[in-house]
Amino acid sequence: MNVVILAAGMGKRMQSALPKVLHPLAGKPLLSHVIDTARTLSPSTLCVIYGHGGDMVPELLQAPDIAFARQEPQLGTGHAVMQALPHLNDDTQTLVLYGDVPLTTARSLRRLLDIADKNKLSILTVELDDPASYGRIVREQGRIVRIVEQKDATETERAIREVNTGILIAPTARLKQWLTTLSNDNAQGEYYLTDIVARAVADGVPVVSAQPDAVWETLGVNSKAQLAELERIHQHNIAGALLEQGVTLADPARIDVRGTLSCGRDVAIDINCIFEGKVELADNVTIGAHCVIKNARIANGAVIKPFCHIEDAIVGAESMIGPYARLRPGTELAEDVHIGNFVEVKNSQIAAHSKANHLTYVGDATVGSRVNIGAGTITCNYDGANKFRTVIEDDVFIGSDTQLVAPVRVGKGATLGAGTTLTMNAPEGKLTVSRARQTTIEGWKRPIKQNK
Ligand code: UD1
Ligand code: CA
């Protein structure tokens, strides 16, 4: 099968410099949703028609299985499909999809495929209470005879509630021939793809229809309001699927998944969490309110308390993170690690049972097991030009308000006194402290204000 995705339109009502089909829904361009769905049908040809916004669309979405055809100027949906013709294989059928209709399911497309064959024109239609600006499906004795655009329709035709979703499957050789006969003599001065329906009827080719499971599958995005509406529908669907799998959601209306979230058994997610990219939550993971988690793997039984920001990180089993913790890219925590409030970890490995509970920066560090990092500890990893590593071996105790000036190593079992600025390695098993000795000045008096 050939698949053609129409994505050249400008999307004037989006009020944006970004081509409409590149606006993100659930963190991914509208057009990518359509491409991903098309791929599930294993098409032999996948052709995207682009135009508005110059080369942004092919530059951003290029892939070995996609052919891009430019439509310039954009003279209508029929003219758009014409640009794909050199790419299409005549021996199979052609499915037309819209780059701004992101939520059509593969299941509904398969239903259309099931009724399609090379001697028919098959259209996905839907009944709407308010058919608005959609093209109307005109039937005679139950048979589809043509589609009339709202702007060209008579009063009676406008009352028709069955509309064209735009998605259709046509026999390719016929399609090519019908497209050559299109004219732009209509209200919008465009070459309408929908006019092929009347051509098919004239050629004695039956026009059949199938319906999607849900109306939202056929909704297109023409404005930011519609984009927001589809985002909510999509998020509602994702939340529903998570609940179905047994995930506990404090409020299915207050979770956003912008990527893939996979959850084990007995996972609980509190309100207002955002998951981006690929996130894996193993069994018994708890996510507190207001967390943003991107490309992360969180192991069995870990507890992420409220207001954490986690990106490109691995959290070990039974670990406790937050509240207000930030795990930046390259963080790898083993099991039972505690990262507390206002602690930032970056590009560091922290081994099992270690803790940094308060107000700390751990960057470019390798931290052993059972290490206790006191409040206010900072790895000084950057000299303004280069970054250096800090190594903290097993069973180290770091007193509060310590600075470790990297590169530096703290030997196994060492203790660093509070307030230490460590600029040389600390030997294992010993107390190292860099601190001016405390003195008390005997007989010292506070100055007193002089009376003039
Ligand atoms: C079209 C259909 C209408 C249908 C509706 C469903 C036609 C003439 N009308 O109308 O029957 O109910 O979709 O949403 O087909 N595009 C191009 N190049 C162009 C024009 C459009 O690539 O020159 C693309 C757009 O980017 C968009 C799609 O085609 O993805 C639909 O275009 P749009 O202008 O929104 O068509 P409608 O007027 O909504
Ligand atoms: Ca439209």
Description:
The chain is an alpha/beta fold and 452 residues long. It has eight helices and 35 strands. The longest helix is centred in the middle third of the chain and has 22 residues, at 224-245. The radius of gyration is 31 Å and the shape is elongated. The model has no long low-confidence stretch (mean pLDDT 97). Uridine-diphosphate-N-acetylglucosamine binds at residues 6-9, 49, 71, 74-77, 79-80, 98-100, 134-135, 147, 149, 163-166, 192-194, 220.
Layout of secondary structure:
Elements: E1 2-7, E2 24-25, E3 28-29, H1 30-39, E4 45-50, H2 56-61, E5 67-70, H3 77-82, E6 93-98, H4 106-115, E7 121-127, E8 136-140, E9 143-148, H5 155-158, E10 162-171, H6 172-180, H7 196-202, E11 207-210, H8 224-245, E12 248-249, E13 255-263, E14 268-269, E15 273-281, E16 286-287, E17 292-298, E18 303-304, E19 309-315, E20 320-321, E21 326-327, E22 331-333, E23 338-346, E24 349-350, E25 355-363, E26 365-367, E27 372-373, E28 378-380, E29 390-392, E30 397-398, E31 403-405, E32 408-410, E33 415-416, E34 421-422, E35 431-432
Parallel strand pairs: 1-4, 1-6, 4-5, 7-11, 12-14, 13-15, 14-16, 15-17, 16-18, 17-19, 18-20, 19-21, 19-22, 20-23, 21-23, 22-24, 23-25, 24-26, 25-27, 26-29, 27-30, 28-31, 29-32, 30-33, 31-34, 33-35
Antiparallel strand pairs: 2-3, 6-10, 7-10, 8-9
Bound molecules: uridine-diphosphate-N-acetylglucosamine and calcium ion (CA).
Residues 6-9, 49, 71, 74-77, 79-80, 98-100, 134-135, 147, 149, 163-166, 192-194, 220 line the site of uridine-diphosphate-N-acetylglucosamine.
